[in-house]
Amino acid sequence: xxxxxxxxxxxxxxxxxxxxxxxxxxxxxxxxxxxxxxxxxxxxxxxxxxxxxxxxxxxxxxxxxxxxxxxxxxxxxxxxxxxxxxxxxxxxxxxxxxxxxxxxxxxxxxxxxxxxxxxxxxxxxxxxxxxxxxxxxxxxxxxxxxxxxxxxxxxxxxxxxxxxxxxxxxxxxxxxxxxxxxxxxxxxxxxxxxxxxxxxxxxxxxxxx
Length: 209
Prior knowledge:
This protein is α+β, with helices and mostly antiparallel strands. It contains four helices and twelve strands, in the order αβββααβββββββββα.
């Protein structure tokens, strides 16, 4: 499998999502995070966009969000998160396992994703997309989810380059027999938690340094 080719194609999609301003509908605003959605072109559901400001520069935010030594400490949604294989310094295959959600309404999910970090003019982006990986087959203990192209786009604010705008795109297929109404409720909350926990984690990291 040509992982680099897949990663490049997905990064182009993430950039195009970030430049696409039409058709988004704001569905939730909380804790200075705005979540919008629109129908996805990848599957029969929605793509979700979460946006927020973080008081840090992109080169600090992005590693904090995807490296296991950081993410396992701050991301309360995850039971575990680990690197399965490094492709090169910017590309790797990661396995994440989520906690169950909503008093067990949604059981634990796991994802195997190709992650790629790429500078672009004006900031840094990361991409996530599902890949088949034979040494990490699905297990009975959780439902295997499928990530359509997802990613983070992080850029310094022109008026304050020490702060950044973080935009997160997700369009996962959670698997199992979940009603659409449950997914519509859970994914916006997931985005808000992700951005607020990133803020809190970075703040905590600064106070320890």
